């Protein structure tokens, strides 16, 4: 398979998973969360609050609220992320509009709170794992994760505290307590799914160590360690770089290295965990 064909297949797989993840989130909201009077987290929860005062469909409100957030995502997280996020956020609004609101398996509010939170988070995580998001707090939280080392789950939890407080004032304390359970289940699902992302250690042997290091620092915001070496066969001076990245950043790093030094040697090592200063992208 040619490189171009492989890229096309990758994009198709990305889009299929993004559609399925977005559909799962919309299903969780309209079949578990909204019909039981609970508030979802992030932008859907904010849209529910606005809907309480203004009789506009929740899906339409979600689309409108996502516009400024998508602009932020484009500025800080790049073109691919923005395109995938635009697709997912539009689909989320459409699916929320199309799927009938009403409980499906049980009327028990606790079960709906738990499974609504879990299914919602799984849908969001599927989109995040393919390099996009469903808009809303996923964008803001990923910006924080990339630049401030705050995980997406924790970033969402901070914002969702305001959602819980508002739900208590509008719907009463009992609904607020169930909303806390739902949001907590979402947060833990985020942590479980996204924190098991593969980390990779790279050893790069090159003639252009400083240029590659500068590009890695600038383009994917990863630190590197450099040391001088001598080629055992060529007996030429080389630079060795050591860098830890997440698997989703591998393609971008390969492009950087090959563009600067096509003859470089890269050894990729699977890494179970990192202790120290290492920023998650989720």
From TrEMBL:
Keyword vocabulary terms for this entry: Cell membrane, Membrane, Transmembrane, Transmembrane helix
Domain DUF2179 residues, every copy: 222-276
Membrane topology: Multi-pass membrane protein
Membrane-spanning segments: 7-29, 49-74, 81-103, 109-128, 157-181
Source organism superkingdom: Bacteria
Pfam families in alphabetical order: DUF2179 (PF10035), YitT_membrane (PF02588)
Location within or outside the cell: Cell membrane
Name under which the protein is recorded: YitT family protein
Species per Swiss-Prot/TrEMBL record: Pallidibacillus thermolactis
């Amino acid at each position: 398979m040619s490189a171009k064909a492989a890229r096309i297949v990758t994009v198709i797989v990305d889009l299929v998973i993004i559609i399925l993840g977005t559909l799962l989130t919309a299903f969780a909201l309209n079949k578990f969360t909204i019909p039981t009077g609970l508030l979802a987290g992030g932008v859907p929860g904010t849209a529910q609050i606005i809907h309480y005062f203004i009789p506009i469909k929740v899906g339409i409100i979600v689309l409108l609220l996502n516009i400024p957030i998508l602009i932020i995502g484009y500025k800080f997280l790049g073109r691919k992320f923005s395109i995938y996020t635009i697709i997912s956020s539009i689909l989320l609004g459409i699916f929320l509009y199309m799927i009938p609101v009403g409980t499906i398996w049980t009327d028990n509010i606790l079960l709906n709170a738990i499974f609504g939170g879990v299914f919602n988070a799984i849908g969001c995580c599927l989109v995040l794992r393919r390099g996009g998001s469903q808009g809303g707090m996923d964008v803001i939280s990923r910006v924080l994760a990339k630049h401030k080392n705050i995980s997406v789950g924790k970033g969402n939890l901070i914002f969702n505290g305001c959602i819980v407080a508002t739900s208590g004032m509008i719907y009463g304390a009992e609904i607020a307590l169930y909303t806390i359970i739902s949001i907590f289940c979402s947060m833990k699902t985020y942590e479980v799914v996204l924190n098991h992302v593969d980390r990779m250690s790279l050893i790069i042997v090159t003639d252009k160590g400083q240029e590659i290091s500068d590009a890695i620092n600038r383009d994917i915001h990863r630190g590197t360690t450099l040391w001088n070496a001598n080629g055992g066969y060529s007996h030429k001076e080389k630079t060795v770089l050591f860098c830890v990245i997440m698997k989703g950043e591998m393609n971008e790093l390969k492009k950087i290295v090959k563009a600067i030094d096509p003859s470089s040697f890269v050894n990729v090592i699977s890494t179970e965990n990192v202790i120290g200063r290492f920023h998650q992208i989720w």
